[in-house]
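To make this tangible, we now present a fold written out as tokens:
***
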Amino acid sequence: RSLIVTGVQTCALPIYPLFRGPSKFPDTVLRAVNMIQGTAWQVNAEILDVIVSIAKQESFGEIVSTAALGTTKPPRPEWISEDKKAADMDEREQAAMRSWKTATRIWHEKNKLNAGTYRRFTSAIRMAQRYRDYRSIWFVWFADSRGRLYPAASGGISPQGSDMQKALLRFADALPLNTESAVRWFLINGANKWGFDKATLDARAAWAAERDELLISFGEDPLSNRGWMDADSPMQFLAWCMEYAKWRRDPEFFVSQLPVGMDGSCNGLQNLSACLRDEIGGQATNLTVNAVMEDIYRRVAEAAMLRLGNMQYEEEDKEAIRQTWLKVGVSRSLTKRSVMTTPYGVTRLTAEKYVISDNLAGGAVPEFDIPQYKMAASVLMDAVWPAIGDVVVKGTQLMSWLKKSSRKIVKETKDPRVEWTSPSGFPACQTYYQEQSFRVKTYLHGAYHIRTAEKRDVPDSGRHASGMAPNFVHSLDAAHLHLTVAALAKQGITSIMAVHDDLGCHAANADVLFKTIRQEFVKMYTEHDPVEELCSKYPYLTDPPSKGSLNIEE
């Protein structure tokens, strides 16, 4: 039984969808899309059974038990009467009311989040149960306006889904671990899924040998031995442990179906650094020959600590918070999301919200109380925001230039569309129209106002400016995916996992992927100059920032 999964539609035919006829898309792009959607997947029924068993007892991560829904709303302070107004309260009562309102807001947000998590969980389990007996399933893929590739799946399970969704899928084809290279990459994959992914590749490969019996116990009896739950990607790690246990028990006849993934080090900044040969940003994002793997999030955290030490606030409350941050320290987790989303146009205000939602609200820094969260995030960002520019010098300059260039382009062309060709030949573009809103007054059981909007055939220069750098960078990582997958196809690799800058294949083919993914990145920037090519298309643009001394060949 085989089928193609196309969102909510299914076709019980073992065929691969192909582009046919004339197209403005180059063969490289078409080959990449067809290779990815030609990859046969299968529901991992063993993982599905474990998830269902856990859900009957408790909630864990993405696994939601119905018993966990509907926690009790925080009670209003009993010692403050219901009819008492804020103007009549003393400072202690006002502080208590603020704390209660904040706790109530967090409760509402958490309840809403839990309800959404439960819907996603049940959707994934329902689809996995439906297709668990199929030998193969395929996903239909499409490209967006930047060239990024996505499976046409709405909810349920997806190769680009969450940790649980990915764990519920495995390649339909299985390959043996019959070479030293295949065994090595299989072991590296397990260390990566656990979270031991900053060490050398040899250290990661050796990691499993030191925990052999423990890993086997996880794989053979995951419900009794739950140490796997501490992994960075617990469900995918468990899927690996199950394969590991089978391999250790019967290595001669074992075959692996799990993808071994390789992703970029803050890939957006990697591409920006490569564009302008930024030697500082290039080293921070592992584009150079580093003896030890660089961690850009940690480097930004260290730069932020230096800035915090040199700052001083006149306001006592802000200064007290700065002193607290100096004692607590700035960890990589506090900077990670802000740094990661910098190439994609994150604003400072959004970055502050990330600090609160990802760290403070979860109790990662207990030194701050809930009423202090907003100011604590603001003070931290006073240091982190400029520290990003300290580490990624050329990248931030290029983003600024792209922003100004988009305004210049739409001013000259009067066209709502800005176009460029990515290194893989994909015709990338961004389109932003101005919108004109109307307020309509009508009567539906009294006066009623409806606000509606329509697009005008006039470019929205503001949205173009904010979107240009993120869209340009996305077109570059998409081009790298196209080029790498097309090159893998020529080498006979037919099962490919693709999550933008995270590509994967069987352990038996991982050594080929390891080399190809680097070769294609270097070729992309030695055979193309994306910035100069944009300038050639729009010759009235100002000169881009100068290039640095990074040797992309490293």
User: Anything to note?
Assistant: The radius of gyration is 26 Å. The first strand starts at residue 2 and ends at 6.
